[in-house]
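Memo to structure team: turn this sequence into structure tokens by end of day. - J.P.
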Amino acid sequence: MSIPAPAEQPSIAAGEKVLELKDVSKSFGSVIALRDISMHVESGSVTCVLGDNGAGKSTLIKVLSGVHQQSSGVYTVGGEEVTLNSPRDALSLGIATVYQDLATVPLMSVWRNFFLGSEPTSGFGPLRRLNVKKAKEIARAELLQMGIDIRDVDQPVGTLSGGERQAVAIARAVYFGAKVLILDEPTSALGVKQSGVVLKYIVQAKERGVAVIFITHNPHHAYLVGDRFFLLNRGRMIENWERSEVDLDALVTAMAGGAELEALAHELESLGGPTEAAAEEVAGTVGPEEAPRSGPDGSPQA
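Reply from structure team:
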């Protein structure tokens, strides 16, 4: 019996709420990792969750993907309350997660990595066999739809760039019916050029109607593709913006800790670190282009 193409998911109108958390908390003994988190994700949009190290991003991903159950609060998918006991439960609801390690096998070919255990077959019973031709055609076509042209899908996936490996993982999740795609720091280990490639694939997924949750600590990357921004700090959701409500400078300032950064700048100044003008730049009170640079004699320098 051959494995058919993934079942068609019910069509979801762009902008429809597909996933929502209401006052969700997660504790590990006496340690509270998440406290009263409320957020929602809409189809055909990119929702960015930002936060520094230790903010609770990893725990949030694990709650969303079924690795951990929330300690309290309500988790709804498609308007119905759900309880996820495992990542398999999340996948059955169309919630796919692409982790930083991508879950790819470097020495296996691109097409084998695309399916990884769900390869199409032909024949029946003991005569069933892998349909290599169909698998290669599907992998090549799906990657092309994501905007990546891999000439030889037989090449080991380890020979691809970091951005291209991300594309394989994203295209795989979309092909197998992901309605919600969670991306865990997809650009953290990439250079500028490859990060741009991954951001392009995120937009491609969005345009195909997928609700993308982009977990990152880089506000510049988030602002390039995001439609809604949630800011985590020490397990709490401290900010929630629509794109029209915030600009990049405000996002960076909130991410950097605004008042904390200004206090640090003044502390460094008092210790004889940066000059007053430099301290003001760090605090965000003076733009970089306005800071005068002094020559050896103390006169302003161009």
